[in-house]
Amino acid sequence: MANGTEFTAHCRAQMQAVQDTQDVIGGKWKIKILTILYFGKTHFMELQRRVQGIGSKMLSQELRDLEMNGLVKRTVCDTRPITVEYELTPYGCTLKNIIGDMEKWGRKHRQKLIDDEKEGK
């Protein structure tokens, strides 16, 4: 019985950690935003152009959430007109391996689907 209890406690802890991660980076847009920011500082309008389908209100909200969680830094530039730049914080860079693994898996999965289609599966 102790083995089952240990497994249950470990499973619960693991599920909580995964849920915490999903709460911070889950949803339709956040991973896309973070991926773009890995390539460097980006202005708000450029982010909106690169994240196809996102509206300015949703982008603002997602960036606020990412900033609140310490993943993204917002800088108001002293320009005319005023522009705002976003970049990853050092803490935000700690997600690079997770996003890299997602990218690798996504490429393999896409290739699998293409191969399955060619084979008539």
Automatic annotation (TrEMBL):
Coiled coil: none
Domain of life: Bacteria
Matches recorded under PROSITE patterns: HTH_HXLR
UniProt cross-references to Pfam families, sorted A to Z: HxlR
GO MF terms held by the record: DNA binding
UniProt keyword list: DNA-binding, Transcription, Transcription regulation
Entry keyword Amino-acid biosynthesis: no
The keyword Signal is annotated on this UniProt entry: no
Residues annotated as domain HTH hxlR-type: 11-114
Protein name: Helix-turn-helix transcriptional regulator
Organism: Dyadobacter frigoris
Upper classification of the organism: Bacteria, Pseudomonadati, Bacteroidota, Cytophagia, Cytophagales
